[in-house]
Model the fold of this input.
Amino acid sequence: MTSFSYPLSLLIKWLGLFFILAMLGSCAQQSYEKVQQTFYVFGTEVQVEIVDTPKDKAQHAIQAIEARFQKFNRDWHAWEPGGIIAKINTAIAQQKPIVVQDSIKAFILKSKKLAAESDYLFDPGIGQLINLWGFHSEDWHGPPPSQATIQQWLNSRPSIKDVHFNNNRLLCDNPNVQLDFGGNAKGLALDIAIHSLQSVGIQNAIVNIGGDMRIIGSKNPNQHQAWRIGIQNPKHPGQILAAIQIQGDESIVTSGSYQRYFEWKGKRYSHIINPNTGYPADHFISVTVIHKDATTADAAATALMIAGPKHWQKIARQMHVTEAFMIDDNQKMYITDDMKKRLQVNDDSSD
Done:
């Protein structure tokens, strides 16, 4: 897998918000239904847009997604009592087995597979480390944990690979494992939402969770019009580096060090933590991944953020990611061959 890099200034062409949906076509009256609703969950704005579907059916489908997302957020929140993940983490800390549903087991096993493919750069077993950095709070303010505290955690190196199953009984070999699926739970939510739409016969829709999206069908099925997505400049919010058209069934997910962070004594600390060092990733500042499966795209974006310029290609191959777009802390860009074919940038930026 090869990559291409461009000066950042040459790629700024489109203006708008992070992952905004560009308005395509004329202002002529549309001949197809469009229903769009916005609600708030997962600590961010969620937008669902359905086209070419009767209004009542689309509204009912969106209401079902919102209810499912609210329950999902309660159940999968790593540090809120009462949810399934909190119950699992309590059982692990007490070194007791816990019986889980088939769907929970399937997702944990899938996450274990993704973690192994990422060389455990993506690792949902590091909830204790995330908590040490204060990112289990809505108020991220520091100070960072001491080096001794981080080293103590590294000495036991909790990991999702310590979790295993006996039928539906979850067991864990390391009491310091605390599961936190912040690295791919939104991807799972996107996959669940799209599957629910498809199950009732909806074929053209977009679900957007804070800029992470899964898309099916077309924006205008009558004209086979693709959805057009803008990719933000992480250094300058409001500036769009490139655009990409998506049609069919694909996910587009971004991880960025600018999304959640705190500053302490003049240094910025991101919420994306390298499990091998115990410290935030500090090479790439933004990674965008396109993949058919949103859960995989979400996990891969996190892993590539941590892998950095030296190792991202290896991790991408192992995670079967062929479309990725990365920006490092020097504003240099790295683009896979397949992604380069789809990005729409200034004509004079191509070589």
Observations:
- The longest helix spans residues 294-318.
- Confidence is low (pLDDT under 50) at residues 2-31, 346-351.
- The chain has eight helices and 17 strands.
- The two ends are 18 Å apart (CA to CA).
